[in-house]
Amino acid sequence: MQSLTDCYTLSNGVKIPCVGFGTWKAPDGDTAIAAVEEALRVGYRHIDTAAAYRNEGSVGEAIRRSGIPREELFITTKLHNTCHGYEQTHAAFKESMERLGLEYLDLYLIHWPNPISVRDHWQEANAGTWKAFEELYADGKIRALGVSNFLPHHLDALLETAKVMPMVNQIRLCPGETQPAASAYCAQRNILLEAYSPLGSGEIFHVPEMAVFAEKYHKSVAQICLRWCLDRGYLPLPKSVTASRIAENAEIFDFTLDPADIQTIAAMTDCCGPSRDPDSIPF
User: Fold this and answer.
1) Cys-Cys with 21: which of 30, 39, 169, 212 at CB 3.0–4.6 Å?
2) Active site residue: 8, 44, 53, 185, which one?
3) What 3-state DSSP class applies to 149?
4) Does residue 243 belong to any structural domain of this protein?
C-alpha cells in the first residue's frame, strides 16, 4: 500500500481504500462536519460511521460540502443494536440513508452480534437482518456487506442461513490485541479485517516500548500503530477531530516495519486493555 487511495479487494471484487477515517465519538454538528471535511481534504476517501454514533447527518453534510464525486468515495455505516431483524433492518437502512443523504452505500455492517435487545434470540435476529442485507445488496443499494465485533461462533451461526458470505469483519485490533481466533477464521474465509480503535482508544500512547519504535523509525506512535495494521493486513480506521493529527495519521506510506518489530508489537499483551465481550455488552 502506497497511498490512502490504494485499495484492498473484497471477495466480491469491490475495491475498498486501505485506510478509513473513523468517526466514533466525533460529536454531531460542527465538530464532526469539520473533521470529515478535513479528512477528505487531506486525501481520505473512505469514511466510517454508524447509526449508534449519531453523526450520520454530519458525515453526509461533510460529503456534500466536499464536492468530491460520489464514485470516488467509500462510505460505511452500521446497523443500530435496537434494529436487528428483517423488517427493522430495512427501516433502519432507509433512515440511515436519509440522514447520510446518499443513494447507495458502499458497505453496511451489523454493528454487534448479540445486543441486549435480542439476547435471547440473537441467532434468529441476525438471520433476519442478514436476509435484509442480502436483499439490499441484490438491489444495488449496498455494494458490500459485512459484520462488526463478530467472533467465530457468531459467524458460524450467521452462515447457517446466509447465502452471501460477509466480506468484512470490523473488530478491535491494536498492539497487544490481535484477536487470533477471529483473525484466523476470517483469513480462512477471505473476510477482510478492519481495525477499529487501532490506537487502543489512546492507551497506546502510555506504552514506553512504543516510544522506542517511534524514535527508531522517526515517526509518531500513532503512525507506528497504523503502519503496523497495514503490515499485518488490517484496514485501520483512525479517528481524530484535530486537523494536525488527521494529516499525521495519513503519513504512513513512506516506511514499513521490520518483521521482528511487527511481531514484538503484536505480542505486547494487554497493553491497550481487553476488548469488550460481544455476548455481554450492556447495550
Assistant:
1) 39
2) 53
3) coil
4) yes
Q: Which amino acid is at 226?
A: L
**Do the strands 107-110 and 168-172 form a parallel or antiparallel pair, or are they unpaired?**
unpaired
4 and 41 in contact (C-beta within 8 Å)? no
What pLDDT sits at residue 52?
98
Instruction: Looking at 56-173, list the stretches that DSSP marks H as alpha helix, in order from N- to C-terminal side.
Output: 56-66, 86-100, 122-138, 152-158
Dump pLDDT digits (tens) for 34-67. Answer: 999 999 999 999 999 999 999 999 999 999 999 9
State which residues form the domain around 115.
Answer: 7-266
Residues in the chain, pLDDT under 50 = none
- State whether residue 209 is helix, strand or coil: helix
- Angstrom distance (rounded) from CA 263 to CA 111: 29
At 196, list the grid cell.
477499529
Number of domains in the chain: 1
User: What was the pLDDT predicted at 93?
Assistant: 98
Residue 272 falls inside a structural domain = no
234 is catalytic: no
| Amino acid type, 248 | E
> Is 198 within the bounds of a domain?
yes
For residue 164, count other CB atoms closer than 10 A to its CB. Answer: 14
Q: Are 43 and 14 in contact (CB under 8 A)?
A: no
At which residue does the C-alpha cell 460540502 appear? 65
Residue 23 sits in a domain whose CATH number is 3.20.20.100
What radius of gyration do the chain's Cα atoms show?
18
